[in-house]
Amino acid sequence: MAEVIRMPLMSDTMTEGVIAEWHKKVGDKVKAGDVLADVETDKATMELENYVDGTLLYIGVEKGKAAKVDGVLAVVGKEGEDYKSLLDGANGAAPKAAAPAAPAAAPTPAPAAASAKVALPAGAKEIRMPLLSDTMTEGKIVSWNKKVGDVVKADDVLADVETDKATMEVVGYEEGTLLYIGVQAGEAAKINGLIAIVGKAGTDISAFVAAEKSGANSGAAPAATTAPVATTTAPAATTTAPVNNVAAASSNGRVIASPLAKKLASDKGIDISKVSGTGDGGRITKKDIDGYVPSATPAATTAAASSGGTARAFTASGQEGHTDVQLTQMRKVIAKRLSESKFSAPHFYLTVEINMDNAITSRAAINEVSPVKVSFNDMIIKASAMALRLHPDVNSSWMGDFIRQNHHIHIGSALALPEGLIVPVIRFADQKSLSQIAGDAKDLYKKAKDKKLQPAEFSGNTFTISNLGMMGIEEFTAIINPPDSAILAVGSIKEVVVKKGEGFGVINVMKLTLSCDHRSVDGAVGASFLQTLKKLLENPVTMLA
After folding, report:
1. Which has more pLDDT, 244 or 388?
2. C-alpha closest to that of 429 among 470, 469, 464, 477
3. Label partner for 160 (CA 20 to 30 A): which of 88, 170, 206, 531?
4. Is 32 a residue whose pLDDT tops 50?
5. Phi and psi at residue 426, in whole multiples of 5°?
6. pLDDT tens across 136-189, in order?
């Protein structure tokens, strides 16, 4: 059945989006994950991704025109499929010129009835699943911070949502009483899916909820959904109860913590009952978990901590066992996107050795005057950005039937988190000084670890750097991070013995490996880029001009 593509909520203050560019036209075959259009919001220009396979049957908003959040942008379905009833239901209006077609439509009154849109009672506001990352198609409710019947304020955090990038907080931006919870903790909702309703206590929203569940409000066929309000209320109360009594020791032996703090503690293997809360009433927050330093622990735990992991339970000698780890939203999308990249983009690899002696000396001198400590990774980001300016073919994206050469340089710097990999983006890196890059990177990495990154801060990359050198890895190859055409893998700095004159000496060497998409970057182009990068890193003074 055809699916309506609606304008997603791409920022917390967004009310409408302008179509900056359509990348597909009516009649084109599209796949889930294809970028349909570029949408300009009040925060940034972002990509609108398709989430269903089929043919683009309809475009409802022309390039340069705006659409309200949840407004109909397009319809995707089977070639030749009749989608007009979807538009009628989506727009909440009767079909134009319906009178002449009445006799033909008479035998099938059911779809017409299904497309009747039901409005919310005055004063009630719907809360829908926001777009919290550029690749997100659905969000999983980790926990609800409120239950049906609670009075909520505009800045209250209603729920913690796990996306493909991180666990983030959903703020309702509405005041009133929480009348309805549409998705239970542990379940997922599609982008723009109804997750809650806020309004005046006692407001009858049953007709609206029924229309949402039947698909009448979206023009879609009925789908399996969560239980009705009466059924949802009980599980919501069940899941909320532990949330309000999770950590921070109290007089009755229970502890109080935010749901996100509880999730972080679980991910990091921290016994939350041992954490001291600094929030209201001793409530444990994310800050408390991030700053928690465990006291002396048994040898097994200490050994695990020193290796950067959590101690695993092993079975007794001679017994078999295993642990099944459920996939996070982030891990699912990492698997999907990198698999698509590896198996669709023809990768080739180029490796070069860099003499880092001058870089080591220059960094020490820079850090004597820099307001922010500059790392070797910051120097690589700066050098890569300057090299990309001279080699625009590498700063490109393969778009299927054309190559897009980006005029701006946004460097993604891959960061490993317990949940998976995220890529904060240093925007306009070629236009920034080393200290500015260092400051931006420091702020972004902290936000990523605190799960505070906003979509504009981890999207829009035109080139990516993956650095495992600090973990002692001398050399590796990285999988290209779409939509980039290349990614730079950075190894460790290692002392090597070389012949110097009549004798021998020691120099510091670092290996860089460039993974290229051969569809958009030729071997000679990638090699030239690395030559420029090598000159910049071996003579850092050239980056200060």
Report:
1. 388
2. 464
3. 206
4. yes
5. -90, 110
6. 788 899 899 999 999 998 878 888 888 776 677 788 778 899 999 999 998 988
Judge whether residue 114 has pLDDT over 60.
no
The residues with which 54 forms a beta bridge, in sequence order, are 30
CATH architecture of 3-81: Beta Barrel (2.40)
Q: Which residues pair with 464 in a beta bridge?
A: 412, 487
Say which residue, 40 or 541, is predicted with more confidence: 541
pLDDT higher than 80, residue 425 = yes
Residues of the chain with CATH 4.10.320.10: 245-296
Q: Residue 161, SS3?
A: strand
In the chain, residues under CATH classification 2.40.50.100 are 3-81, 125-239
Residue 488 or residue 36, greater confidence: 488
CA–CA dist 64, 51 (Å, integer): 23
Architecture of the domain whose range is 125-239: Beta Barrel (2.40)
Structure tokens at 155: 């800045």
- Domain 329-544 CATH class label: alpha beta
The residues that bridge with 496 in the sheet, in sequence order, are 507
Q: Is the pLDDT of residue 320 over 90?
A: no
| CA distance linking residue 363 with residue 356, whole number of Å | 10
Rg (CA), the chain: 27
Confidence band for 9, pLDDT divided at 50, 70 and 90: confident
Reported as type and span, the H/E element at residue 248 is none
CB 480 within 8 A of CB 455: no
Judged against a pLDDT cut of 50, whether residue 100 lies above it is answered with no
| Tokens 């010129």 -> residue | 97
Name the β-bridge partners of 411: 426, 463
Which residues belong to the active site? 518, 522
Euclidean distance between CA atoms 262 and 258, whole angstroms: 6
Of 294, 319, 349, 306, nearest in space to 475 by CA:
349
Give the span between the Cα atoms of 331 and 291, in whole angstroms. 25
pLDDT score recorded for residue 304: 44
Q: How many CB atoms lie within 10 A of CB 342?
A: 13
Chain length of the chain: 545
Question: Which regions of the chain carry the CATH code 3.30.559.10?
Answer: 329-544
Give the right CATH number for 245-296 from 3.10.20.30, 4.10.320.10, 2.160.10.10, 3.90.850.10: 4.10.320.10
